[in-house]
From TrEMBL:
Name of protein: Multiple sugar-binding protein
Composition bias, Basic residues: 8-19
Signal peptide positions (record): 1-39
Domain of life: Bacteria
Entry's family note: Belongs to the bacterial solute-binding protein 1 family.
Stretch list, region Disordered: 1-20, 41-61
Keyword Acetylation: no
KW Phosphoprotein (keyword) present: no
Pfam family, one: SBP_bac_8
Protein keywords: Signal, Transport
Amino acid sequence: MHSTLRQRTTRRTHTKNRAAKTAAAVLAGALALTLTACGGDDGKDKEGTGGGTQETGSTVTLPKLDGESLEVSAVWTGPEQANFKKVLAEFEKRTGAKVTFVPAQDPIINFLGSKIAGGEPPDVAMLPQVGAIKQAVDKKWAKPVGKEAQEQLTKNYSQGWQDLGKVDGTQYGVYFKAANKSLIWYNTTVFDNAGATEPKTWKEFLDTAQTIYDSGVTPVSVGGADGWTLTDWFENIYLSQAGPEKYDQLAKHEIKWTDPSVKDALTTLGELFGKKDYIAGGADGALQTDFPTSVQQTFTGGDQPKAGMVFEGDFAGINITQAKAEIGKDAKVFPFPAVGAEAPVVSGGDAAVLLKDSKAGQALLTFLASPDAATIWAKEGGYLSPNKSVDLASYPNDVQRDMAKALIDAGDDFRFDMSDQAPQAFGGTPGAGEWKALQDFLKNPKDVAGTQATLEADAAKAYGD
């Protein structure tokens, strides 16, 4: 569930430090001003080409694929899977193709490897990591994006989001789902009862946590059973504290995890993890709590939930809704607090990659690169699209509309999730690499040096250093 935004700092190292900081400030400022305030297409037909037909109100021409079938694999479960199936159902309706969703397990590269070894790979896979796209290309599994899909990408996506799907200059991935992973959601009843206010800095965040604790509610819920949530904690602190240039260097392992900047970030994170009374269930409880539960337990239990705040991306909205809490009323959100000069802005996403080069598979990538496909899921909530042609009115509430606008307005100046850029063995495997090291750190946040040493050893092995 990595979109789930895994909902995870672009490799665009040519983006200048100042531009990145300015964009981060603009995006964080936009979020601060708008996220707590709650309350594309031109609709014209176009002539089909290449045997395709054009639905009324659609923006993309798709071929007729009667009698053809394809399989699509992703790690999405629950509402995410259900909403994606609605997208696939529309593709079936427009083309006549039969699409089967194949549930995958983490790490998806291993899952795909077993499928390919058995001679039964899916036609398309939704990959939640930049590193996974590169691995799929290196293994010669991935097929390049075709002309029609590239036309949609060029028309609807910023260069930064296109480049994330490229390997050595060739387009392989279509980023269909994005995430803003620099958000903290809070229970408004808890904040009101405690007299707490939205913090803007890390110090203010810790002060707010103390205020909530003093009111009789545990401040923070952590889904530590899912190691990726812990990497997101680290990445936001590191980006804000060390800055974009260092972030880019660490993402590519150009500097070691034993660098003093990593020590500083872990020490800062330890200021929260070291306060066991601040975390629902303490470290042991957090390590047994998956991400959906970490969100839901923040918004159930009346005025005595298990926690007052929970960190994660916009996709947490799905779990908030499942807890029968109303976004904008029962649940509000503020940007991840600034540790350094600027508040961090970390993005993540899931890209469609073709494993079988067929007419049907290429047509699905074309559809997923269009605003038509993104609009279907946008209306369901718990989703952000990097597609700049999606009408903001498609999103179900002001909170999500503001998140989507901030994402699009950031253009190319954002940072993509660091662990998702890493080789999957280091940045995306349960019980191993960065996930395991940070789970161990949650249990023992005083062991900064030991955590750094473990991270560096695992990174060096994964990067082949």
